[in-house]
Structures are given as structure tokens and as C-alpha cells.
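Form 12-C: Joint structure prediction
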Amino acid sequence: MRTIKDLQSLFNDALQEQQFKGTPTELYEPFTYILSLGGKRMRPVMLLHACEMFCGESIKALPQAIAIELFHNFTLIHDDIMDRAPLRRGLPAVHKKYNSTVAILVGDAMLLTAYKYLVKCDPQLVSPLINLFNDCGIKICEGQQLDMNFEKSNTLEIGDYLGMVELKTAYLFATALQMGAIIGGASESDASHLFNFGKYIGISFQIKDDWLDSFGTVERIGKQSGGDILRNKKTFLFIKALSISDDLTKGQLKSWFSGEQVNDEEKVSAILKIYSRLGIDEVSRSEMESNVAIALQHLSRVSLTESQKKSLAELAKDLLVRNE
Amino acid sequence: MRTIKDLQSLFNDALQEQQFKGTPTELYEPFTYILSLGGKRMRPVMLLHACEMFCGESIKALPQAIAIELFHNFTLIHDDIMDRAPLRRGLPAVHKKYNSTVAILVGDAMLLTAYKYLVKCDPQLVSPLINLFNDCGIKICEGQQLDMNFEKSNTLEIGDYLGMVELKTAYLFATALQMGAIIGGASESDASHLFNFGKYIGISFQIKDDWLDSFGTVERIGKQSGGDILRNKKTFLFIKALSISDDLTKGQLKSWFSGEQVNDEEKVSAILKIYSRLGIDEVSRSEMESNVAIALQHLSRVSLTESQKKSLAELAKDLLVRNE
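Section 2 - Result
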């Protein structure tokens, strides 16, 4: 069986071969730009891997892997406009490199192109795959809207946050695995367990992303960013901190996150001190562990050998924070 | 056979029955808002009519008619952001009534929802319908990008304009008719002639839209707008005028359209005088007539009786300007 690394190369080679060219060039050049920014290609690779687990062959799922990656990039392009995010993977976001108008239209064209790849499969799989893909896409839109609503809300509970992350982030991991399993000929039950595996992995992935922003060391992420704190982002850490702190600390957290101009370093340092006092590091790790554990339970119920499931199990455990 | 008016009612009733509801409401309320703004529902009605022409029954094409209307409204929502258009059918555009962020996301969700309806059909039609719909969607994006490029170009030829209109406007008419024909069981040749009928009708429709802005009487369109002139829009009329005028008139046209602040009434009146001197009214009518004639040629080659084709022929002739 191919390793995750093999599948990354396979996918990147296949993506590179696609010609996203046409007229007008203003519409197609940004396709190449955003797709060349790279990334770990986690979603398409999970799709390919799921297919390979069941039929020993991942190549037949390549069009759908490309569809998932195009879909993911469509959401990145539009989200970056909505979130006014200037950078994507350290380089200008599409709406900054070009402009918002181009970015809206390129995102639209990329979503439509995703569907072109999606349907390149066994005719009897077209309907099931399209239905999964449509539902996933709509859930992600709902998640993005919830995320934007959260920025204005002062009464968030951790359950609201987890519900939003399930939609905005986890559903695409889950759907990628489910689609791969279906293309590989998995039973309905196995495909459903892989969906759930992906869902809990996705939730854990997002919590780790939130965690890294505050607790990632320079060695781990290249820099300590605190970017979420500076942008008053309502992360797992912030909402959890609010929910377990006394009134005085609540007041301090809300005051720092009220958006008034303050010294950046001072703000990050103050918030990290509060997080540390409240044990948010450990609480977050424990939440990641719970989600990974549920994911692994679902994986254990997939009717394949341990060796066939090994790569996914490792991928799940890689999401945990190791005490290095 | 149902009349166009019957089909409009049938479609509006079916659309009204759909529940575009869900959470978060911020995402779904704008669905109801834009769909309630009305319009003649030309595209879905043409789809239903094409289906009925071939199989005597249009109800089975209702999901695809809804898909086409959702798709059309998705393009309106995003185009209005890109074109900074404050109004849609006399009421605030979605990005004005809500905001641009909501409008981007609602458009995305509406496109995804369109696909949900599109696949509600005979399983063996899913692939052909999806492929037509995808291609059409991408062509429309290309047309919108060309239209935006044109606003910055000083060297447009009438062929560029017609190519853009074919993509941005005519393709959706053409695809709606082709899809309806396929659902109704038409032969490939008949479906293709209906596609071409729709294409030339669509081009004529856009030229008439351009023409009405300058030559529509108060009785015809409720008001004389000149809105395209005030927005320096590169319409059929303007590009044609540029292409047939001498250097002096060219200079005048370019100067009026240079975007400098001038008196509105004075500008509209000056441009209309130039159009009149150049015979642009007649040239435009003649272009509409040519396109309608080609459309009718394609209709004549569809293997149905004259009475079955009567409504479409009338619809085509209604696009011509009558000397009232």
C-alpha cells in the first residue's frame, strides 16, 4: 500500500498535469497561483488513501481528489475575502494579489470546475458522490456563517464552537474519507465509520490549530504567532477560558478582546498568562485527545486489517501534542 | 400544451413551496429575499417548455427548472457585488440589504443548492445534465470576467462584445432549453437546435436590453433611463457607434464616456443625439432581427409540429421591436 507521502507525490503530480488554462487569462491565472501555494494536501490525500484501503488502488479516485482540493481552495479564496485576511500560506491572498472582484469570480469558477472533476467516475457513483459533495458544501457555508456570527457574539458556549468547527472544518475531512471509501467499494457501514473518523480528526485538527497559535513553540511552528489573539479570534482556547474563569478574569479577557488598540506584545503576553493560570494548555490537549480517541474507535470498527488501517491511525495520533 | 403563462404560474408555485430554511438564518433569509424579487422566470420557463414540447409533460423538469433559477440568482448576487450595483429589480441588491460578506456566502450556498436540485432526475440523465450545467456555469464566469475587462478597454470591436454576450447571457438561455429538451427525451440533434435557438435568442435579448436603455419609450419600459450611458457601460450601441463614426465623433463619444463628472441630462441627450445621427437605433434593430432570424432557422429544424413550436416562435418574435 502506498504511504501518505507517496500519495502526496501522486496527487501533486496529477494536479500539476491539469491545465487550468483558458481565456480570459485574468480568470485562469489565479487558479495556478493559489494551487501552487502548496499545503499538505491533507484532504485529497485522505480521499486517495481511503480508496486505496478498500480496493488497493488509489489512481481511480484522482479526479475526485482534485475536486476536493479545488473545492477547498474555493473556500479559502472566498473566506479570505470575507475575513479580510491579507495572507495565505505566507503569500498574498488571491483578493490581495489580484482584487476582490477577481477573487469572487475565480472562487465561483473553481467550484464549478470541482464539479467537472467530481463526475469523472463510474456512472453509478455520480449521484451518491454529488449528493455527499453538495451536502458537505452547504454545511461548510453554514459553518462559515456561524463563524462570522460568533465574531459578534458575547455569549458563546464551547458547544457552539464545536458545532461550528464540525461544519466549517471537520465535514470536509469526513466527506473526503467517505467519498474515497465509496469509490474504493467500501460497505455503507465502513464508509460511515470513516466519515466519523474524519469528523473527529477534523475537530481535533482545528483545536490543535487554535492551540498552536498560543502554545506552539518556535521549533514546532517556525514562530510563535499569537495571531488569533491579536485578531480577537474566538478560538477553542478563548471560549474555554471564558467558560471556566471567575468574573474578574472574564472581565479581563473581554476587555483585552474588545478590539481597542493596545500594545501587541503586552496583549499576547497577558492572555497567555490568563490561559496558563486557567490550565487552558492541558484542557485543550485533553479535548484533542478525546476527539482522537473517538476517531480511533470509529476506525477500529472498519472491517479491514490493522495493517490496512495503520496509516490513518498514525495520522490521527500525529494530531496529538507530544511532550517533546 | 401549457402556455408560457401557465408555466410561469406552475414554476412560481413550485418555487414558493421550496423551503430554503435552515440555520444560521443569516444564510437562508437572503434566499427568500432575492427569490421573492420576482422577474419573468424566463430561463426556468424555457426549460419547462422545452421539456413539454417533447414529452407533453413539464412537471418532471421542475427540479432542474429550480436549479436554473437558483443558478441565475447566484450569478445576480455575485455580479451585483462585482458591479457595485445598488439595486436589483428596484429593491436593494443582496450586498446592500445585508452586506458583501453575506452576499458572497449566500451566492455560494445558492450555487451548491442548485446542484442539489439538478440531480433530482432519472439517474441516467445525471451525468449529461451535470456536464452541461458545469460547462454553462464556467462560460458565464468567463463572460463576466470579459465584461469586466471591457470596462477598462479602449479597443473593443463589436465581435468582442457579441462573444462576451454569448458567454455571459446567451449560454444560460441555450443551456436551459437544451436541458429541458434532454429531460423531455429529445434527440441529440433536436436538443442541439434548441440550444442554438436559445443562444441567438439570448444575444438578441441582451441587445434589446441595451437598446431599451436608450430608445425605450416611457410606455415601453416605464421610464427612459439612460442608466447605461450614465454608467459609461460599453453596450452594443456604444461599441457600434464607435466603430462606424468618424474621428471627430469618436473623440466626442470617448470624451463623454471618460467618466468625468458632467450633467446627467446633458450627457444622455448628447449621446442620444450622436446615436441618432449614426442611425444606431436601426442598426441595433437590424442586429436583433438577424439574431432572431438565425434562432428561428434553428427552431424550424427541430423535428416537431409547427403548433408544438408556436410558443417559442412567438417568444422569439416578441424580442423584436415593433413599430407601435
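Section 3 - Comments
The radius of gyration of chain A is 20 Å. The domain at 1-133 of chain A is CATH 1.10.600.10 (Farnesyl Diphosphate Synthase).
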